[in-house]
Amino acid sequence: MKKVGFISLGCPKNLVDSEVMMGQLQQNGYQITPNADEAETVVVNTCGFIDSAKQESIDAILEAARLKTEGHAKRLIVA
Fold this sequence. Notes:
The protein is an alpha/beta fold.
């Protein structure tokens, strides 16, 4: 089964968006894992509305990219 890990940042709307995406993925046979380093696909769901959020987003994206570079994840999606 394909595993997907989510990193959700930002406002409560982003959390809702992540929940919707996770539900759709589960309905289509994907397994959601709470550990991004166990996932084949890592989704970073974020926004850049304020400067501090932008930096947090950049840091999370870079960390997820590191997982991909190290071979833990095959795909990185930024939403």
